[in-house]
Design goal:
single chain; 409 residues; alpha+beta; Cytochrome Bc1 Complex, Chain A, domain 1; 2 domains; six-stranded mixed beta sheet; five-stranded mixed beta sheet; 42% helix; 21% strand; globular
């Protein structure tokens, strides 16, 4: 197990490091509580605009100079937006981490947020939003979350046309001033980096940062309502959502294994029973989404209009049949997949940096490799079935996109 270091500074900022001596690279995750949940409803989409503008100049460098400085260091970077957080991820050679951190500190603490760049950023945001019409599967899953989750979990991260069009540069700067504060800031680093020099540099770059990001609105109960999006097409897209457990729950790994049994490759149940044996759909999968206070299973199937209702009926049958039992070889397959992912994560600085930040956000601590492996090794058919019985597949939210609505059997 690589050494993991952590420190919480006086201003509330958290620094995490997993030292990986066997690599020559390093990955950095800068995560802050400037997610979609902080958006004013009339400015839906502003968080994504701010995320884009962070890259368009910072400190003494304009957009071109900042890009050139990062390129000269060989930094591969990106900004990502979530409901609760905004993240800037970067990877570079370990020896370039100090210089990279100085640039990233400018981007988080001293972004230029240039007014001249706003029109092009808004144009790109609107293009991405309009592009949903050409991506029905993506559009369906956004609508499924919108109808299943309560506010703010149901926010469309792409925003709205009206919200994006309404954003001004004053709004952008006000959003930044409101949300970019150290009390929600987590910097996670993974790679061949020494702890003490990193800690000292981070304290020098961020230690005098002050301010408090407002507490986010807390979500209520899931509304779990049904909806149909009418579209004259030969395809029908089906989305299902139902409750599960959060990542902190003792049965979290059983829920994760359940997802693997249903949708973990070409030998999984849904792929085998719905797609291969009956030829009902061209795509089907489940995913297990975890929040601090809840978990959710999402299921997607894409099929023809003529076979849509049959696809839904058979899918529901397979979901409910899981409570009747699971074979030992299914458990072994899931364990192999989870261990493979765990081992590959341990060998990737980017994956480890992301895991550090995720663990801290959801659990307030970092899980060790041994803890996760022990939980995977402890999975049994009986334990997975017990999870399914304790948290049965019911209270579905059904959202469809196609010519005709469907009904739950």
């Amino acid at each position: 197990m690589s050494a993991v270091f952590q420190q919480t500074f006086a201003n509330g900022m958290v620094l995490l490091l997993e030292r990986m001596e066997h690599v020559r690279s390093a990955a950095l995750n800068l995560v802050i509580g400037a997610g979609c949940n902080q958006e004013p409803p009339q400015l839906s989409g502003i968080a994504g605009i701010v995320a884009d503008l962070l890259e368009r100049g910072a400190g003494s460098r304009d957009s071109r100079a900042l890009s050139l400085a990062l390129d000269n260091l060989g930094v591969d970077y990106d900004t990502q937006l979530g409901i609760w957080n905004m993240a800037l991820t970067a990877s570079a050679l370990a020896k370039n981490v100090p210089a990279t951190l100085e640039l990233l500190a400018d981007m988080f603490r001293r972004p230029l947020l240039p007014a001249k760049e706003l029109p092009s950023v808004k144009s790109l945001a609107l293009q991405d939003l309009h592009g949903l019409e050409d991506e029905p599967q993506r559009k369906l899953m956004i609508e499924l979350r919108k109808h299943y989750y309560p506010y703010p979990l149901n926010i469309n991260r792409l925003g709205s046309v009206e919200g994006i069009q309404a954003v001004t540069i004053d709004d952008v700067r006000a959003f930044y001033d409101k949300t970019f504060h150290p009390n929600t800031f987590v910097l996670s680093v993974a790679g061949n980096v020494e702890w003490e020099p990193l800690r000292q540099q981070v304290e020098a770059l961020f230690g005098d940062w002050t301010g408090q990001t407002p507490a986010p609105p807390m979500p209520g109960e899931n509304p779990a309502v049904h909806a149909h999006l009418s579209k004259e097409t030969a395809q029908t897209h089906i989305g299902l959502a139902w409750p599960s457990v959060p990542v902190s729950h003792p049965l979290h790994y059983c829920a994760l294994a359940t997802s693997g049994v249903l949708s973990g490759g070409m030998s999984s149940r849904l792929f085998t029973e719905v797609r291969e044996k009956r030829g009902l759909c061209y795509s089907i999968y489940t995913t297990y989404e975890r929040q601090k206070d809840r978990g959710t299973f999402l299921c997607y199937a894409g099929t023809t209009t003529e076979r849509a209702q049959e696809t839904l009926d058979v899918t529901l049958h397979e979901l409910r049949r899981l409570a009747e039992g699971i074979d030992a070889d299914e458990v072994q397959r899931v364990q192999a997949g989870l261990k493979s992912s765990l081992i590959m994560q341990e060998e990737s600085t980017s994956a480890r940096a992301a895991a550090l930040a995720s663990d801290w956000f959801y659990l307030g601590r970092v899980r060790s490799f041994d803890e996760i492996q022990s939980a995977i090794d402890g999975l049994t058919a009986e334990g997975i079935v017990e999870y399914v019985k304790q948290f049965p597949f019911e209270r579905f939210s059904l959202v469809t996109l196609g010519a005709h609505p469907l009904h739950l059997s």
